[in-house]
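Suppose you are handed a protein chain with no further information: no name, no annotation, nothing but its sequence. What can you learn? This example shows the usual starting point.
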Amino acid sequence: MTPEEEILKSSRVVAMVGASDNVDRPSNQVFRYLRANGYKVIPVNPVLKELMGEKAYPDLISIPEEVDVVDIFRKAEDVPAIVEEAIKIGARVVWMQEDIVNEAAAQHAREAGLKVVMNKCMRKQHLAM
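A reasonable first move is to predict its three-dimensional structure. Written in structure tokens, the prediction is:
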């Protein structure tokens, strides 16, 4: 089993940073797919109040429940601050979507005990299982 498969099989709650209500955005499509496949997906976006019935939060720190995976749909330069929040809330995994790579942030997350996936789509990885 690949590390990505292990993460997908053992995780239930995904906080999606950069979730969008625009149906043409990849984050919206991944949000819908993960929900349809049994994951609780929490939208994290300061301009959204809710997404498909799920309350949205402005940041990870505001989420009142445990999060397994922080799924990041933001520019690579935004990742270090998101990793800091992921560490603070006790997330198990930081997952950077396709085309998002930040080696320094990934190393920081690993040093704090988090698993890291970079430059891979959760939906595509799940479909491949």
